[in-house]
């Protein structure tokens, strides 16, 4: 029991340290960002129409973007990164040359949320403006 209490205290100190270092999103719930069933269905329809797909292995959406060059792909990623920082909501992504693969989900609650939908809409606008 004493070891368990010590481990919990140690874990709590790590969380406090991370929060103090700026990782303020740790532990925050996406409860206020959850989608209702109706909102989710509409969002999925809209996103699928734009080329996004649902992942079968987890509650997330995915899309691959192709650009004319690496510079265009990187510029696109930079715009998305700045918006993601503002939202404190970051994509999972992979880039090779002119291709960018993006997966969106809310890790803190393990599901698609309003933040994912909002970021996906921004990503679409950013891709269209390249």
From TrEMBL:
<dbReference type="InterPro" id="IPR036428">
    <property type="entry name" value="PCD_sf"/>
</dbReference>
<dbReference type="GO" id="GO:0006729">
    <property type="term" value="P:tetrahydrobiopterin biosynthetic process"/>
</dbReference>
<protein>
    <recommendedName>
        <fullName>4a-hydroxytetrahydrobiopterin dehydratase</fullName>
        <ecNumber>4.2.1.96</ecNumber>
    </recommendedName>
</protein>
<dbReference type="GO" id="GO:0008124">
    <property type="term" value="F:4-alpha-hydroxytetrahydrobiopterin dehydratase activity"/>
</dbReference>
<comment type="similarity">
    <text>Belongs to the pterin-4-alpha-carbinolamine dehydratase family.</text>
</comment>
<dbReference type="Pfam" id="PF01329">
    <property type="entry name" value="Pterin_4a"/>
</dbReference>
<keyword id="KW-0456">Lyase</keyword>
<keyword id="KW-0732">Signal</keyword>
<keyword id="KW-0783">Tetrahydrobiopterin biosynthesis</keyword>
<dbReference type="InterPro" id="IPR001533">
    <property type="entry name" value="Pterin_deHydtase"/>
</dbReference>
<feature type="signal peptide">
    <location>
        <begin position="1"/>
        <end position="29"/>
    </location>
</feature>
């Amino acid at each position: 029991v004493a070891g368990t209490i010590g481990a919990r205290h140690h874990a709590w100190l790590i969380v406090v340290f991370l929060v103090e270092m700026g990782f303020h999103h740790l532990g925050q719930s996406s409860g206020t960002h959850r989608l209702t069933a109706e909102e989710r269905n509409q969002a999925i329809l809209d996103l699928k129409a734009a080329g996004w797909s649902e992942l079968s292995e987890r509650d997330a959406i995915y899309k691959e973007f192709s650009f004319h060059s690496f510079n265009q792909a990187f510029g696109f990623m930079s715009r998305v990164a700045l918006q993601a920082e503002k939202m404190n909501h970051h994509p999972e992504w992979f880039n090779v040359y002119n291709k960018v693969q993006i997966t969106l989900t809310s890790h803190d609650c393990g599901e698609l949320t309003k933040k994912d939908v909002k970021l996906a809409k921004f990503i679409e606008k950013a891709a269209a403006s390249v």
